[in-house]
Amino acid sequence: MFFADIGLERNLEKSATNCTTLANKETILDGIDGYQYLGVLENKSNKIMKNEMIEKISAEIKARIKRLTSTKLNAVNLFKALNEHALSLYNYYIGLIDIEPDDFEVIDREIRLQLNSYHIHLRPANCQRLYLPRTYLGRGLESISMKSERMLLEFYTDIKRKSVCCLSEKGW
After folding, report:
1. Has residue 109 been placed in a domain?
2. Same-domain pairing of 137 and 58
3. Are residues 68 and 81 in contact, defined by beta-carbon separation less than 8 angstroms?
4. Is 40 exposed, middle or buried (0-12, 13-18, 19+ CB in 10 A)?
5. Closest Cα to residue 44, out of 56, 35, 36, 55?
6. Do 132 and 69 belong together in one domain?
7. I need a labelling partner for 34 at 20 to 30 A (CA). Which of 17, 57, 61, 168 fits?
């Protein structure tokens, strides 16, 4: 009723739901379809579709790296842009999607292979220099596996610190 009053039309395709109590009003997702909530794909049983999300993120990262390497940025600005524009996409999904540390290593390897294919990192045997800061004569690329460990550790210590504080305020 509200939509008709203001002259809008409901998009039933985007209004799909996982809730069976709304079956007469909305489109119910079947077992194959997924639902995207805040950029995260979920299936009918509200489980995150991990493999599809990793493929989606990986494809977007590859597209961003390709766009950045086609520019005429110097090495300093290119690696800053790679860190800020391409690799920062993982910041949102770390901790949200249950990605194992081995998966992050695979992601780092794929990024190195792509940089090698665009002739940005020509010495694939020297991976340590790629991740060293520029002040230590490195390239300054951020490692996704190290970043994920750091973010999850900070999250864990923050939760632990706040739980001690909250429990002591309530007298527990």
Report:
1. yes
2. yes
3. yes
4. middle
5. 35
6. yes
7. 61
Under a CB-based contact definition with an 8 Å cutoff, are residues 98 and 152 in contact?
Answer: no
**Dist CA 137 CA 63 (whole Å):** 28
Per-residue confidence of the chain (172 residues) as pLDDT tens digits? 666 777 777 666 555 555 555 555 555 555 555 656 566 766 666 677 778 888 888 999 999 999 999 999 999 999 999 999 998 888 888 877 888 888 889 999 999 999 999 988 877 778 888 999 999 988 999 999 999 899 989 988 988 888 876 665 555 5
Write out the residue range of the structural domain in which residue 32 sits. 1-47
Query: Do 82 and 23 share a structural domain?
Result: no
| SS3 (DSSP) at 42 | strand
pTM for the whole structure: 0.69
Please, what's the largest Cα pairwise distance for the chain? 65
E strand residue ranges, the chain: 35-37, 40-42
Residue ranges in 73-143 assigned as alpha helix (H): 75-81, 89-93, 101-117, 127-131
Rounded Cα gap, residues 112 and 105, in angstroms: 11
19: in domain: yes
